[in-house]
Design a protein that fits this description.
Order of helices and strands: HEEEEEEEEE
Shape: globular
Mean pLDDT: 83
Number of domains: 1
Strand content: over 45%
Protein name: Cholesterol esterase
Number of helices: 1
Distance between the termini: 42 Å
Number of strands: 9
Length: 205
């Protein structure tokens, strides 16, 4: 029995070591992304992985909002339809982001949390390649059905001629829940940032 227990322990240790080695690049990339995004250094476009992740927030408040349909290209050449959503300046309270990943020791959840204890997350030029969104939303000075190529709120972010778009001076969403392919921002201040990796399905929702 002692021999079997020792072998099981060694096997488990080996599996976790393999998992740790596989995970290091992902966590390193996440740490670099957080640091670079915070300094405004993330490029405006990139090939996405094609894997959707979940984002939730107790409340989002934004100034300068625009939205239109588009297609993103994955690293393997695939194409995914998305609802491109842009906010010039945003604050998010109670932010949670989660990615569910398969590993040699079963599924694990990579979690990012920030924006609690009265210190909201702050972002500028926020761009979300959106798959689905739900929540209670309110808009001010909204224009629905505007040609996407003429969108100017926020300035500098527009779609193709002939596409249907919408824009608003402000947006407020409570109980935000969304799935997305990518999030891109000029600056992203993650106040009270907490990163963790947890075994099993521990997604934001």
């Amino acid at each position: 029995m002692a021999g079997r227990a020792g072998m099981a322990s060694a096997s488990g240790g080996t599996a976790w070591r393999r998992f740790a080695l596989a995970l290091v690049p992902a966590l390193t990339a996440a740490a670099v992304l957080a640091a670079v995004t915070g300094e405004g250094g993330v490029a405006a476009s990139f090939s996405v992985s094609g894997q959707r992740f979940k984002v939730s927030a107790d409340r989002l408040v934004g100034q300068g909002f625009a939205q239109y349909g588009d297609v993103v290209v994955t690293a393997d050449g695939g194409r995914r339809p998305v609802l491109m959503s842009m906010i010039g300046r945003a604050t998010l309270t109670g932010l949670c982001q989660s990615v569910l990943m398969p590993t040699p020791v079963g599924r694990v959840t990579f979690l990012l949390r920030a924006g609690r204890d009265g210190r909201p997350v702050e972002a500028t030029n926020l761009v979300i390649d959106l798959h689905q969104l739900s929540g209670d939303a309110a808009f001010d000075d909204i224009e629905i059905g505007r040609d996407a190529s003429t969108l100017d709120t926020p300035p500098g972010l527009a779609g193709r001629p002939g596409q249907v778009g919408q824009q608003a001076a402000t947006v407020r969403i409570s109980g935000l829940r969304q799935t997305a392919y990518a999030v891109n921002a000029g600056t992203f201040r993650l106040n009270g940032l907490r990163l963790s990796i947890e075994r099993g399905d521990r997604e934001c929702f």
